[in-house]
Amino acid sequence: MVRASSVEIRKVNKFYGPFHALKDIDMSIEPGKVTCLIGPSGSGKSTLLRCVNFLEEYNSGEILIDGELIGYETAGGKKMSSRRLREMRRTIGMVFQQFNLWPHMTALQNVAEGLIRVRGMAKAEAETRAADALEKVGLGDRMGNHPSRLSGGQQQRVAIARAIAMEPRLMLFDEPTSALDPELVGEVLTVMKALAAEGMTMVVVTHEMGFAAHVADQVAFMEQGELVAVDAPANILHHPEDPRIQSFLRTYHERNSF
Amino acid sequence: MNDLLAHYGPFLLRGFGMTVFCWLLGTAGGMVLGLAIALVQRYSIAPVRWVLRAYIEAIRGTPFLAQLFLLYYGGPMFGLRLDPVPAGLLGLSVYSSPYFAEIFRSAFGSVPIGQIEAARAIGMSEFSIVRRILLPLGLVSALPAMVNFSIVLTKETVILSIITVPELMYQVQRMSAETFRYVEANLALALFFWGFVELISRLGRRFETRITKHLIERT
Amino acid sequence: MFSWTTFWESFIPLLWAARFTVLVSGLGIALGLVIGALICAAALSPMKALRLFAALWVSFLRGVPLLVQLLLIYFLLPVIGIDVPALVAAVVTVAICASAYISEIWRGAINALPRGQTEAAKAIGMAPLAQWTRIILPQAVTMSLPALINELILLVKASSLVSVVGIMEITRASQAQAATTFRPLEVYLAAACIYLVINLCLAGVGRWLEQRMAV
C-alpha cells in the first residue's frame, strides 16, 4: 500500500485574461480515493487538474496537498519559491494526453531521468528502480526502446512508469487514453486500475465513462468552468438530476452507439 | 607558372589555413554567443529581452564590412585595440551571433511544451530541464540550419582581407598585384571557393543526417 | 570622448553617398529579377542542357564569395575588351549574384503551388501559355514578394563591398570621412545607423506585404 495524499480544493478561480476558466471550485479528495473529472471539452477539467500541481497558476482560492498549500506561500500571497514547488511536485505524478516522453531517451532512461536529476540517485540504482517500474506496467522487455519504437499504449505505460518510479502519493491523469487508438486503451486502463487497487490517490480527467463507473470513488462533472456536481459514480452516471449532465450523457451515448 | 607556384605556394597555403582557422573559430564563437543570447532571451525579464532584440536587429541590419570597420578602426577609441586577426575573429563571431541566436530560438520553440511540462511535473529544476531536455532536443532540430549558416559564413571570411587579415583572399590579391595576373588569380580563387563550398556542403549534409539519426530515432 | 558633432555632421556626406548604395542595390535587384527569371525558366525547362546551365549558374554564384566575383568581373571586363566604369562592373556583379538567389526564390514559389492549380487550368482547356500568365505566375510572384524584399535587404548590405573598387557609396564615403576627421568610431556608427534605417524600413515593407498576403 502506498502512502496516499489528500487534496483539498477551496474556492479556486482561474482567469485567462477576461475569460473565467475556473469558477469557485470546491472539492475534496480523500487519501487513496479515485476521482474522475468529466464534462464537455473546454469545461475547465484539464485546467483544474493542472492547477493541482501548479503547472497552471490559479488566481485565487487555495489547493492543499496533505494540508499544504501549493503554488503560493499563503493563500492570496506571493508565489512559493521554485525550489519549494519542485519539492512538492516530486510527490505528485502526472500523466499527459500526449505522453510527453522525451524522444532522445530510451524507455529506461525516460523513467530513470527523474530519479537521477530530482532524487539524486546514482545511475545504477536509478536504473534498477526504473526497470522495476517498467516491469510493473508490463514493459520489462521494452526498456531499451526509444519512444518512436513503441506503440501509443506502450508509450503511455512508460509515462505512467516514469511517474510511479518517483513514488508519488498522488497521481494526476490528463485524458490518458484520448490520444490512443481504441484497441490500445484497455492496456493503459488496466495499469491504472492496478494502481487504484494499491490505494493511490488519483485524479483522472477522462472520457472513459466505463472506467469512471467501475473504478472511481467519486465523479465530478464540470461545465463552463463550473463544478456542477460531485457525487458517487452511480448518482452522476446513472441517475443524474442536473439537466446539463443528462444532456452531456445523452450526447455521449449517442456518439458511442451505432 | 611553376616558378609562381613555387614562390607563392607557401603563402597561398598559409592563407588557406588562416581562412579555415578564422572560419572555424569565428563560427564557433558565433554559435556560443548565439546560444547564450537565445537562452537569456528565453529566461530573462522583458527589458533584457528588448536589449537583446535591439542587438539582433542592429547586427542583422548592417553590413559585415561596416561592423568590421567600426570594430577595427573605431575600437581603439573605446579602448579596444585589436590586431587584424583577433579583430576579424571577434567581428565574425559578433556578426554571426544574431543569426545563430535566431536559429536556436526557433529550435527551442519547436521543442514541444509538453515534454518540458513533463519534466516540471516530476520536479526537475529549470537548469536540469535546459541541460537534459531543451538543449539535446533543440540542438538536434537546429542542426540543419546551423550547418547551412556555417557554410554561408565561409564566404564571409574573404571580407576579413579588407582589414588585412592574411587569409586566402588577402594572399591572392597580394600575389595578383605583384604579378599583374589579376584575372587568372581571381578566377582561380573563384573556382577554388566553388569547389570548397560544394565540398563542405556535401560533408555538412552527410554529417547532419548521421548525427540526427544517431541522436534521435524518429519514425 | 565621443564627439556628437562629428557623429551628426557625418550624416551629410554619408547620406549623399547613400544614393550609390540605393542605386547599386536597386539596379542590382531590378536586373537580378530579369536575369533570375531567365535562369528560373532555364531550370524549369524540358531541355537538359538548359537545366544543367541553370544548375551550374546557381551553384557557382552561390558558392563563390561576392567580393571574389566582384574583383573577377572588375578585372575581367577590360581584358575581354569591355571597358566600362567601375560602377557598371559593380552593378553587373551584384545583379548576376542576385539572379542566382532570385531564380531559386522563384523556382521555390512555383514548385510550392499546388499541382491542382495547373490541373484545374488544364481541365478547362487553357493553353499552356495562359496557364503560366494567368494562373502560375501571378500566384508565384505574390508568394515570392516577402523573400524578394529579404533579398533586397541582403543586397543593400552586400553593396558595401563595392567600396573596394572605389564606388563612393556609404561605406567608402565613411572611410574617406574617417580619414579626414580622425574619428572612425563616430563616422562608422553613423554609417551603421543609415544602413539600419534603410533595412528596417525595407523589413517593415516586407512584414506589411506578408500580412496582406496572409489574408
Quick overview:
The complex is a heterotrimer of chains A (258), B (219) and C (215). Chain B has 219 residues and is an all-alpha fold.
Secondary-structure element order of chain C, N to C: HHHHHHHH
- Helix/strand/pairing class of chain C, anyone? mainly alpha
| Strand content range of chain A | 15-25%
Q: Based on CA inertia axes, which overall geometry of chain A fits?
A: globular
Oligomeric state: heterotrimer
Q: Describe the largest sheet of chain A.
A: 6 strands, mixed
Radius of gyration of chain A: 18 Å
Radius of gyration of chain C, CA atoms, in whole angstroms:
21 Å
Order of helices and strands of chain A: EEEHEEHEHHHEHEHEEHH
How would you describe the overall organization of this protein?
- The complex is a heterotrimer of chains A (258), B (219) and C (215).
- Chain A is α/β, with parallel strands linked by helices.
- Chain A contains nine helices and ten strands.
- In chain A, the strands form two sheets. In chain A, strands 6-7-8-3-9-10 form a six-stranded mixed beta sheet, with helices on both faces. Chain A has a four-stranded antiparallel beta sheet with strand order 2-1-4-5, with helices on one face.
- In chain A, β9 and β10 form a beta hairpin.
- Chain A starts with 6 loop residues before the first strand and ends with a helix.
- The mean pLDDT of chain A is 92.
- Chain B is 81% helix and 0% strand.
- Chain B contains eight helices and no strands.
- The N and C termini of chain C lie far apart (51 Å).
- With 215 residues, chain C is an all-alpha fold.
- The radius of gyration of chain C is 21 Å and the shape is flat.
- In chain C, α1 packs antiparallel against α2 and α3 crosses α4.
- Chains B and C meet through α2, α3 and α8 of B and α2, α3, α6, α7 and α8 of C.
Topology:
The complex is a heterotrimer of chains A (258), B (219) and C (215).
Chain A: E1 7-16, E2 19-29, E3 34-38, H1 45-52, E4 60-65, E5 68-69, H2 82-89, E6 92-95, H3 107-117, H4 123-136, H5 152-164, E7 170-174, H6 182-197, E8 201-205, H7 209-215, E9 218-223, E10 226-231, H8 233-237, H9 243-256
Chain B: H1 2-43, H2 46-60, H3 64-72, H4 84-109, H5 113-121, H6 126-156, H7 168-179, H8 182-215
Helix pairs in contact in B: 1-2, 1-4, 1-6, 1-7, 2-4, 3-4, 4-6, 5-6, 6-8, 7-8
Chain C: H1 4-44, H2 48-63, H3 66-79, H4 86-112, H5 115-123, H6 128-158, H7 170-181, H8 184-214
Helix pairs in contact in C: 1-2, 1-4, 1-6, 1-7, 1-8, 2-4, 3-4, 4-6, 5-6, 6-8, 7-8
